[in-house]
C-alpha cells in the first residue's frame, strides 16, 4: 500500500503554527531557571576579594558572609550589628548553610576574620565541624 | 400571534449561535513568560565560585598541646597595607621560598599547616599563604587562636 503524501503547493497563508508545544517548553525552561536561580545579592559595603591561584571551587549559595576592610560584617545584604547578632543569624539558618562562604576584603584584618570564624564555629551544632570557604577573586589567574 | 413569537425566538437563537465564542488571548501571556525567561536566564549563574576550603575542628576548647605540623608565624605589618614578616618553623621565609620548603618538609609535618598571625595582618596575606600551602599539597589548615575562659 503506497503512502499518499499530500503536498499543498502555494499555501493559502492562513495556516496556524501550533503554539502549545512551544509554550510548554518555555514554561518548563522558566520553572527550571526560577528554581535554580540564586540571585547575586550585593553587600551593603564594597568588598575586594583577594587574588589566588587556587583551583578549588564550590557552588554558589545563599547566605554569604561579607567582611569589610574596616571590620563590618554582613550576611548577604543584611548588616550585622555585632558578632552576637551574626552568631544568632547563623544559628537560626544553620540547616540552610552547609558551607559558610566568607567573602572578606583583601584588606580586612586577620583578627576580624578569625573572630567571625570562631563565633560561627561556636554557634554551629555540627559535630564534624563547620566547613568554611574563603572566597577569592574570580578573575585571578 | 403565536407564530410571530416563535419566529422571534428562532431569530434570537440563530443570532446566539452566530456569536463568536470568547477566546483567551495568549500573546500577552507569552510575552510576559518570555520576558521572565530572559530575565532568569541572564541573572542565573551556574559557574562555581573559586575559593579555599577550610574544614574547622568541632567547637570546644582549643588544644593546649604543641601541634604537630608546619607553623607559619606572621608578624604585624610595619608599614600600613603591607605584608608582615613571616617565619616558617621559626625561620624567616619569603613567598618564593615557601613553596619548596613546604614540599621539602618531613611527611609528618606536611599533614597540617598552622597559621599563627597577628590580628592586624591583612587577609590577603593569609590567603596567599593558604594558597601556597594548598598548591604544595597541604590539605589541613588551622588558625592559632587564644583560648579565652
Describe this protein's structure.
The complex is a heterodimer of chains A (141) and B (149). Chain A is built from three helices and six strands, in the order αββββαβαβ. Chain A is an alpha/beta fold. Chain A has a five-stranded mixed β-sheet with strand order 4-3-2-5-6, covered by helices on one side. In chain A, helix 3 (110-123) links the parallel strand 5 (99-104) and strand 6 (131-135). In chain A, helix 2 packs across helix 3 (110-123). The radius of gyration of chain A is 25 Å and the shape is elongated. Chain A starts with 19 loop residues before the first helix and ends in a 6-residue tail after the last strand. The mean pLDDT of chain A is 79. Chain B is rod-shaped, with a radius of gyration of 37 Å. Chain B has helices spanning 2-18, 27-43, 95-104, 107-110, 123-135, and strands at residues 49-55, 70-74, 86-88, 91-93, 112-117, 140-143. The mean pLDDT of chain B is 79. Chain B contains five helices and six strands, in the order H-H-E-E-E-E-H-H-E-H-E. Chain B has two domains: 2-43, no CATH class; 70-143, 2-Layer Sandwich (Nucleotidyltransferase, domain 5), CATH 3.30.420. With 149 residues, chain B is of the alpha/beta class. Classes of the chains: A alpha/beta (141), B alpha/beta (149). Strand 1 of chain A pairs antiparallel with strand 1 (49-55) of chain B, so a sheet runs across the interface.
